[in-house]
């Protein structure tokens, strides 16, 4: 589902499971975001919502989705694409599943849903990157037909770059 202030308590509970210092891939969180107060959380959700709004003057489309089951936030996934066709430095997609919900097929499911959304935007192929030693993410991408292009150097170290045709 799209980010919403309605899930403030559930989101903070999930955030606490990740713990400090662990980057939550797929949520579009920046170090400058202050998400532990209702006001800060609302400002962050408003930013994410604006980044996805085609009516707002952005250089890129950012679509954020939260993976929610009942009243629990289980993960997040982000699609990032530049309107000029350039490939974003960390690829077109990022995702993360909270530790207690891993190995249930959620990342594979969420990636499939987001690829469907990307088709709806008329995108033809997406580059997905994962750290060289991230077997779980590599398998997730390969489930959706990702073709390994090779290794790329990123700000976070060497990463596998996979192209997924839509
Ligand atoms: C990578 C990540 C998103 C996978 O989420 P998940 O919901 O556990 O993934 P799935 O359950 O859909 O599993 C996908 C595949 O990876 C395998 N897998 C999952 N965790 C694994 C692990 N720790 N070791 C080996 N294989 C693993 C699964 O068995 C499955 O393969 P299979 O269907 O052939 O059995 C999750 O581990 C995570 O959030 N990691 C931290 C953030 C991250 O690395 N994000 C990706 C950045 S590109």
Automatic annotation (TrEMBL):
<feature type="domain" description="N-acetyltransferase">
    <location>
        <begin position="28"/>
        <end position="166"/>
    </location>
</feature>
<dbReference type="GO" id="GO:0016747">
    <property type="term" value="F:acyltransferase activity, transferring groups other than amino-acyl groups"/>
</dbReference>
<keyword id="KW-0808">Transferase</keyword>
<dbReference type="InterPro" id="IPR000182">
    <property type="entry name" value="GNAT_dom"/>
</dbReference>
<protein>
    <submittedName>
        <fullName>Predicted acetyltransferase</fullName>
    </submittedName>
</protein>
<dbReference type="InterPro" id="IPR016181">
    <property type="entry name" value="Acyl_CoA_acyltransferase"/>
</dbReference>
<dbReference type="Pfam" id="PF13302">
    <property type="entry name" value="Acetyltransf_3"/>
</dbReference>
């Amino acid at each position: 589902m799209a980010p919403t202030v309605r899930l403030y308590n559930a989101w903070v509970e999930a955030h606490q499971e990740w713990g400090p210092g662990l980057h939550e891939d797929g949520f579009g969180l920046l170090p400058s975001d202050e998400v532990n107060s209702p006001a800060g959380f609302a400002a962050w959700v408003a930013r994410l919502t604006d980044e996805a709004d085609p009516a707002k003057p952005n250089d890129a489309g950012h679509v954020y989705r939260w993976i929610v089951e009942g009243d629990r936030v289980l993960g997040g996934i982000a699609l990032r694409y530049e309107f000029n066709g350039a490939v974003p430095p960390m690829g077109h997609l990022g995702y993360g599943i909270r530790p207690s919900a891993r190995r249930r097929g959620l990342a594979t499911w969420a990636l499939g849903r987001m690829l469907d959304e990307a088709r709806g935007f008329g995108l033809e192929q997406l580059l997905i990157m994962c750290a060289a030693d991230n077997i779980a993410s590599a398998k997730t991408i390969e489930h959706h037909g990702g073709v390994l292009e090779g290794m790329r150097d990123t700000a976070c170290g060497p990463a596998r770059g996979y192209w997924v045709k839509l």
